[in-house]
Design goal:
single chain, 437 residues, alpha+beta, CBS-domain, 4 domains, four-stranded mixed beta sheet, 14 helices, 12 strands, disordered C terminus
Length: 437
């Protein structure tokens, strides 16, 4: 073959390698949702790309066949052509001709390898990784045609490969088109770090991923915080109670909170004449209450609230007693964050102080504390900050008690009966921090 044609064929083979490398990385990198959006707009190339991504193993095999064939061609044609081009430069006496001949061959090999790596491998790889959708749309039709041409060979090679790996227990599976929950978490975190997602979007997506893992016990209003009405009370009694504790619903119990028989909504009491309110028992206007176990997951709880058309559940512990109440607002707040209505107190559960410490409500969930202070609390068997401090103390708490929590000093600053109402969190690494009592 003439030198000129050999050099042209060498350049063509490098470009063929670049084509298959770009197509391979574009197939792996592109998101099917991008192709679906374009396909819905009528793009035939995008529709073809979708088909190829769904059968990616076959088309990746085709690119490997193309890359291998092109590289073999470069070895057969490219190196001799470059050697012929630079050989005359090393024309010397016959005594040292062998040494310079070998040197010329090594240089020719290095030139072909360098050009192949830069132009045939790295450049198309970077291009496909940067613009996978554009590259796939450009390469889809030629790659599809090539795959049809070499399909019998791909089947033969693929079948042989499966026979080789079968003794090792490898399954014959196409690439999974889905992501695990942990992979989704990593994608959300990476997208937030790169600026693709705003902080509010990251928080919402993280809440969605965590939602099904939480149970109602973690978000309920605990028994000690329930404001309830005795069954013999009148509507007037409830109206008076609502002045002191402005809630929209009140559980109704007989004898004690372990025997909740219903719930009254203040909306049902509005407009009732005073005389009638004093005569009417609250049991006459109460609504049914639905009980659920404290281990019910939030996604199921939300589905049940929607199905049964009730905005409040009575939460029952393992012994059948009342553990607390959970409302639809409590559940939704785990998705969208704190929801404030006209009756809610605006004070946040975690408040940073001027000295760098944090005042934390005892009912603050450990999830909220973990996120706010970047703590490692995954193995703790408690749901609230107060419960964690109580567990570490091993006894009833007193104001001034303190414990160590993952490098922070938690000091009890307020009590509500026997319940820890508030703690002060201070970094244990700060100078002058008191030792735990």
């Amino acid at each position: 073959m003439e030198l000129g044609w050999a050099l042209l064929l060498t350049i063509a083979l490098v470009l063929v390698t670049a084509f298959f490398v770009a197509a391979e990385y574009a197939l792996v990198r592109v998101r099917e949702t991008q192709l679906a959006e374009l396909a819905e707009r009528g793009s035939a190339l995008a529709a073809l790309g979708q088909r190829m991504v769904r059968r990616i193993d076959e088309y990746i095999s085709a690119t490997q066949v193309g890359i291998t064939a092109a590289n073999l061609g470069l070895g057969i044609v490219g190196e001799p052509a470059v050697f012929s081009l630079i050989g005359p430069v090393f024309a010397v006496d016959a005594e040292v001709a062998g040494i310079f001949h070998a040197l010329a061959f090594i240089i020719a090999f290095a030139i072909v390898t360098f050009v192949t790596i830069v132009i045939g491998e790295l450049a198309p790889k970077y291009l496909a990784l940067h613009s996978p959708l554009r590259v796939l749309l450009l390469t889809a039709a030629p790659l599809f045609a090539f795959t049809q041409l070499v399909r019998p060979f791909i089947w033969a090679v693929g079948g042989s490969a499966r026979l080789v790996v079968r003794p090792f227990g490898a399954a014959d599976r196409a690439r999974e088109a889905t992501y695990s929950e942990e992979e989704l978490r990593l994608l959300v975190a990476a997208s937030a770090r790169s600026g693709v997602l705003q902080e509010s979007e990251r928080e919402l997506l993280s809440n969605v991923l965590n939602f099904a893992d939480k149970v109602v016990r973690q978000v309920m209003v605990p028994r000690t915080e329930i404001v309830a009405v005795e069954a013999n009370s009148t509507v007037a009694d409830v109206t008076e109670l609502a002045q002191k504790h402005p809630f929209t619903r009140y559980p109704i119990y007989r004898e004690d909170l372990d025997n909740v028989i219903g719930v009254v909504h203040v909306r049902d009491l509005v407009g009732m004449p005073p005389d009638q309110a004093r005569r009417t028992r609250v049991t006459q206007v109460m609504r049914r209450v639905v009980a659920v176990p404290e281990t019910m997951h939030l996604d199921r709880a939300l589905a049940e609230m929607r199905r049964q058309r009730v905005p409040l559940f009575l939460v029952i512990d393992e012994f059948g007693g009342t553990a607390g109440l959970v409302t639809m607002e409590d559940v939704l707040e785990e998705l969208v964050g704190e929801l404030q209505d006209e009756f809610d107190k605006a004070a946040p559960l975690i408040r940073k102080q001027d000295d760098g410490s944090f005042l934390v409500d005892g009912l603050t969930s450990l999830d909220d504390l973990r996120e706010r202070l970047s703590l490692e609390l995954s193995d703790e068997p408690y749901d609230t900050v107060g419960g964690l401090v109580f567990g570490k103390l091993g006894r009833l708490a007193r104001i001034g008690d303190s414990v160590e929590i993952d490098g922070w000093r938690a000091e009890v600053t307020a009590m509500d009966g026997r319940r820890i109402a508030q703690v002060r969190m201070r970094s244990a690494h700060r100078q002058g921090a008191p030792r735990p009592k």
